[in-house]
Amino acid sequence: MPDGKRLGGAGPRAPGPAQGLGGAxxxxxxxxxxxxxxxxxxxxxxxxxxxxxxxxLLLVGVLVGAGGGFHSMYRKITAAQxxxxxxxxxxxxxxxxxx
Length: 99
Known about the structure:
Blueprint: H1 23-51, H2 56-98
Helix pairs in contact: 1-2
């Protein structure tokens, strides 16, 4: 099999689930999202105590943390989808070449 073909001549396999985000990466994204909210909520609560503006800065902190966490999660997921699509297209092109 020096030319990269498998037995049966089916060509290279399509990329498997290991290409994209796995369970550990999804858990990490959820943890990062929660930590962003908690961090900004704590910062807002601290500023509320210092400035006497309770609960407004706490609410702003929660919203900013949720927005930032969601933005980070969105970027990582779309990058993983893009990598998966590129790998599928490369595998499809390799299969077409082997025909």
